[in-house]
Design a protein that fits this description.
Oligomer: single chain
Low-confidence stretches: none
Strand content: under 5%
Structural class: mainly alpha
Largest sheet: none
Distance between the termini: 56 Å
């Protein structure tokens, strides 16, 4: 049986990698994937918390986070696609000059 601390360590590493990737990389798809990695790290931490307590509440929260991540993926990829069609670039620095 794997101890809960191992799950927390993996979740912390994943979340840290997501934060670093979000702030270091400047292109939108990489930042988008970094957010997904951070959400999955949060899911892993929630499940690690629920395992010893045998609580179903954390599992419900995980399903909610998965739903939010799916909605974020749909909307985020659509926005990235529209930005690429108009700007021919997906770099975040190029979006500072967007005007309505």
């Amino acid at each position: 049986m794997i101890p809960a601390g191992s799950f927390f360590a993996v979740a912390a590493i994943l979340f840290g990698l997501g934060v670093v990737a979000f702030f270091v990389r400047k292109d939108l798809p990489t930042q988008f994937l970094a957010v997904e990695v951070m959400l999955n790290a949060a899911n892993l931490a929630f499940l690690a918390l629920a395992k010893p307590a045998r609580a179903a509440d954390a599992q419900a929260v995980v399903f909610f986070v998965i739903t939010v991540a799916a909605a974020e993926a749909a909307v985020g990829l659509a926005v990235i696609l529209v930005v690429f069609r108009r700007r021919k670039s997906v770099r975040g620095e190029d979006l500072r000059t967007l005007k309505g």
